[in-house]
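Entry 14. Ran structure prediction on the chain below.
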Amino acid sequence: MNRREFLAGAAAGAVAPPPPIDIQTRRLTLSTGETAIQQTVTITAPGSARLKVEIPRGLTHDLPKRQLLLPMKNGVLRRTAPTEAVFEFSGKHDAPQAAQLAIPLVTETSPDTGWSLSFTADPFFTTAFGEKHHWVYPAGVPRQPRETRTIYSCLHRGGPQRALDIFYETALAGVPRGPDWLHDIALIDYDFLSKHGRGWFADIDTLEKSIAPADRHKVILGLHGWYDYCGRYTYNAKSKSLDKTWLAFPNAQGPEVQQRAERPDNGDPYYWSPAAIRALKPVEMSIDNLRHRIRYAKQRGFRVALYFADGMNACDGISTHDPAKVLRWGGWSGPETRGRSYALNPLHPEVPEFFRGYLAALLDTYGKEIDALIWDETFMVQPPDHGAGPYQGFAATAMMQLVRELTLAVTSFRKDLAFLASDDVGVVPNYRAPYALMAHGTYQDSHCAPKGWPYGLFPNFRNTLWSCQWAPIKAFDRTLYAVDTFDHPAAISNGYAEDRGVSDMSPEDLRKILDLFQRRKSTRQQLHWIEESAGTLTYKGRPVRAI
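Output, structure tokens:
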């Protein structure tokens, strides 16, 4: 069978479903010459009644001895007989026994012929792949007057790597891959305004003495806790500008924070000591001060990442609080929050508008000096979230669209500037939204938990997958496993939990970190999938802990 014979009946004889569903079909020629069929599906059915959309395949086939290649949610590339598979995101599906996909991609392959047929879809909504593709708009959730989806089919040579390339060229067309330098990073650091802001400088001085100038570009230092309040971040939405001066950790001595000092030590390596909590205090900051911090690292050859935001976290004890923007109560409570914490509703039009304006001001002020922005805790909005009050719909879809928009803005500002998400998929059962598909990679707040790595592989496949490590000494074994198995950078931190930066470490502990950096610095992190064979899981031939 040749390509022409295979494509002969594609799309030409397809019969569109009756209104309110319209399918427009066109052919795309991919960069390597393959032909893909794009189906643009428009659903004109406002309201909130249950609606199932079922779409015929863009291409049909008669490939002999078919086998499916499935990028599973747990990072395994499963090879199996034909079956249904589903990418779950916003919305529902009618395939309860389907295999759970990490990304919306299914490949049927015929080893005897060397041909493969890949089906993929945009990741903004649930898609079930089978003899027909389908998804369900559940009852009770209002839809837009016009909902649009895109589905792709492509006949091609090559195995799973080629299928993934096609996924990026079709379903993620227009979403830029991360800057290449991310793959070379061998040491990552998070500084939560440690030691009243002095730890940043002390740790840089230690690293300067310990790491050769030629290697320092492989180290990235994250500035966390530099802003005033979560949900505000020194940004004045009315003037569309950043404050020139402010207090960081403004609620350090507030009861919401100081009550943490009463929690007993249960042996958790991420226990934040009472002494460290009681020592917290507000720190006077300014644009000039923050620029000085950035330049202190940059002038010594290190890269710098600036904390962008704590997901959708905000608090009700500040003047900018608006109860109409609350998606759900609860979330991080710390020295940069006041009152009750909550997640902002991305379906409220002023919420994405805030983040657009804030990013523009941040880039204008610091964008030429930093190397990356970190959007922490992007997992706060999940597929079951349907908004609140009059602002209802598919909140995860709105969040995914916002991540994409901000990533494009960062790339447009500077092609070598990175925008990182923090999804924690697989770390907590309810966290299953892969927003990193729209970002330049992940710097997740998973404490290097071993169970988190497999779930981040496919959503970050062409980029990088990192985690903070708030207990770099007590939980060193986690970092060691991450470096040895997934080529993760060595990870350190200061200012939270163990609260021990490199300047606080004993010579023995510091040497362990530096030895890990030296071992890691000659390897680029290029993500792969997990292979399974007779119950054994391996990643690039290395054993993987049970998932």
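The chain is about 20% helix and 25% strand. Will compare against last week's run tomorrow.
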